[in-house]
Predict the 3D structure of the following.
Amino acid sequence: MNLIIRHRKKLLCAAGVALITIAAITAFDFYTGYKKERARWGSLRDVIAAQTEGFKGKAYVVIKDYNRNWRIDIDSGTRIPAASIIKVPIMGAVFSAREEGKLSVSDNIKLRQQDKTGGSGTLKNQRSGKEYSIKEIMELMMTISDNTATNILINLLGLDYLNRWFQDNHLMGTRLSRLMMDMTSRDKGIENYTTADDMALVLDKMYRGKLINQNVSSECMRILKQQKTRNRIPAKLPKGTVVAHKTGLEKGICHDAGIVFTPNGDFLICVLTGHKYSNSYKSRELISKIAKIVYEYYMPDK
């Protein structure tokens, strides 16, 4: 009997040693894998920084990895004229007003002649007096960056409400001071501002279902996935890559920010640029190159 007991003890001891050894090997492999991945992420940051340093202008960047919640930040807290990218938090504020009972997105609004403005969009060419739902107006603002649609929503909610919503949602570098395409005010130095940090924050909330609630966040992501301008973040990505994003463009300003979905993990990318080129080509190239570089980090064989 004692011999059997001693034998069992030896077996248990051996099993324990084996389990400890396996655990140690597993922990070592995990640590080694983590260090290797962390090094790859550091190299990615260096490559992106090199791209921005070679750019004749300023680039403000946030990249967020959703596998490990790692971030790359390059001057991400610096304020820059927002152009149309400010339409992302405006969309959030419209949904917030709906949740507060201030409006229904099914309500109709008549298009007025004084609402019409230049730049991107189709409403400026439509008949005055024609009715559109707030939902239709909001989707035009986001999917084709319609400036007339944006101004209708700004006038509907008011600058005070919008700026208070930005502050309440911790978009501390974002402020709306004029309507879209109000070049007279712009020439006087009255400008709309944001930061890469702020755009990353509002997009991150939408992605994680934390902007107001899950339903609102999902609706925002659905709308962002319908973006028609694809000459920046999606431009160099494989055909069919899903990107939920919003662009911005004015003289000397070119932006894009959104979420890229890949089979190996999703990532947030925000690249805001200020440049002195005669057109936006170099800025668009920079944004699309950075997006491609990050995509290849996730999909190295592509």
